[in-house]
Amino acid sequence: MPPHVYHIVFYATAAVLVLGVAALEIYRLRTGRRGRVRSLSCGAGFGLGDASAVVEMEDGRVITASVPGCTQCVCRLRPGDAVVVSKVMDRFVVGAAVK
Hints:
Elements (H helix, E strand, L loop, with lengths): L2 H29 L1 E9 L9 E7 L4 E6 L1 H7 L6 E7 L2 E6 L3
Antiparallel strand pairs: 1-2, 1-4, 2-3, 4-5
């Protein structure tokens, strides 16, 4: 195959991946419920495992949700931070909110 075909395939694949991630993030932000972190309790070590957070939702409910290691490390959540809570299977998962 000519070299320019590889460039087309590369950029088309990159565009599909970027658009897919953007679509999933928009979906997460639209379907998730907003709330504020009340308290955090870390597991094994910071960013090594899931932590749990007590989150006060906008409607006043208080729930316990898990915080994935990536969210702990990248977002550095603290009490009072705005978050988006999604229900995954039978548990709640905290994600960062867009400020």
